[in-house]
Amino acid sequence: MPGQLLLVDDEPGLREAVQAYLEDSEFNVNVASNATEGWEKLQSNPPDLVITDIMMPQVDGYQFLKQMREDPRFKSLPVVFLTARGMTKDRIQGYQAGCDAYLSKPFDPDELVAIVENLLERRASSEKGAEGTDIEIIARQLAEIQQILKQRPAIAQSDTHIKIDLTPREQSVLDLVAQGLMNKEIARRLETSVRNVEKYVSRLFSKTGTNSRTELVRYALEHGLTK
């Protein structure tokens, strides 16, 4: 599956050129002209990796990265800094801020592609390795969800009408999460990748303002979002 990238840069020419090159390298690229727009797109369509300029008006790259790292959903999201400032102290500041790679302008597009591919591969390997170490967390989440389902008749639906637009695939994922299925089982059921399921779950968290699967299930039951 091609990686989903978010490119944030206030220079239209550079933004369009980098987007075109990355898309030629078979990545899916969403773009934003500033950090505020980038944050909105980050939440509505969570990417696998973010590429962002540092020197931007109003909210710079450092502030944007800080905002990401303070949100549990994006704490480990790979981030590549692009900047015209290539001094050693600037790179050190970037790494101290929590970026994963730092590329000074002008740069070779092939180098950017290599960095992106490397970071995505490392993330995928890390997630694969984590599957075997998160058994206790998964077991606890399943137990909590099963408990919620047992209490389902006692969960009163809210009288407040809440309109949340879910795509058909998001609804399918929500229904399966509410059944107590984990990402791997959902991916198998929907014939898609685990990474895609993770994206849909992240979108559901964002749209419902929840932070865990148990919160999501309770919210969905209270507001009649799932049967």
Task: Reconstruct the topology from this structure.
Blueprint: E1 4-8, H1 12-24, E2 28-32, H2 35-44, E3 49-53, H3 61-69, E4 79-83, H4 88-97, E5 101-104, H5 109-130, H6 135-150, H7 168-178, H8 183-190, H9 194-208, H10 213-222
Parallel strand pairs: 1-2, 1-3, 3-4, 4-5
Helix pairs in contact: 6-10, 7-9, 8-9, 9-10
Distinctive features:
alpha/beta; 11% strand
- Unreliable runs: none
How far the N terminus sits from the C terminus, by CA atoms, comes to: 31 Å
Overall pLDDT level: 81
Q: Using DSSP, what is the number of strands?
A: 5
Strand content: 5-15%
Order of helices and strands: EHEHEHEHEHHHHHH
Level of helix content? Answer: 40-55%
What structural class is derived from the secondary structure elements? alpha/beta
> What overall geometry do the principal axes of the alpha carbons give?
elongated
Short characterization:
The protein is of the alpha/beta class and 227 residues long.
How would you describe this structure to a colleague?
With 227 residues, this protein is of the alpha/beta class. It is 55% helix and 11% strand. It has 10 helices and 5 strands, in the order βαβαβαβαβαααααα. It has helices at 12-24, 35-44, 61-69, 88-97, 109-130, 135-150, 168-178, 183-190, 194-208, 213-222; strands at residues 4-8, 28-32, 49-53, 79-83, 101-104. Strands 2-1-3-4-5 form a 5-stranded parallel β-sheet, with helices on both faces. Strand 3, helix 3 (61-69) and strand 4 (79-83) form a beta-alpha-beta unit. Helix 8 (183-190) packs across helix 9 (194-208) and helix 9 (194-208) crosses helix 10 (213-222). The longest helix has 22 residues, at 109-130. It starts with a strand and ends in a 5-residue tail after the last helix.
